[in-house]
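Next up, sample data:
>
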Amino acid sequence: MFFFTRYPSSTLLRSYFLDVQFSRCITSQLIKWFSNFREFYYIQVEKFARQALLEGVADAGALRVSRDSELFRALNTHYNKGNDFQVRAAGWDTGPSVPTHPGTPLPVSLQVPGRFLEVASLTLREFFSAVRAGKDADPSWKKPIYKIISKLDSHIPEVFKAVGCSQELLRS
């Protein structure tokens, strides 16, 4: 789900986990998991933005996240441990990128939205620009970035609402 939404509300979570008996504790735990997912995401993106600066990248516009980029590999390894999802990246396979390594396609039919790569690229450019401008000296320098990214969640496919969805996806 994190490939589609980084900031789900409790209402959204309830509508996609139909087979879960929600209590205040369970809802709180799911919200906490997404908070942890976001923390990992932003730490990785910041690390790669700083790396790009150290490597002499001058233009934030030159940065993008592709399915072959090291940043995407780190995120995918974390969020897609079983390689249950494949990345569809139409229109995102050319141009300069963050440091890359030859990748291999993921072996599954369910597609991660290409929009995730767009959002990750924008996040990378925002972090890069903020660090380059010295905004990281302010303790709350990340808040404007979080605000931008929070508005970029994608629609989650209805297939995720099916009871036992995760088990079905694993079998396909």
Strands lie at 85-87, 110-112.
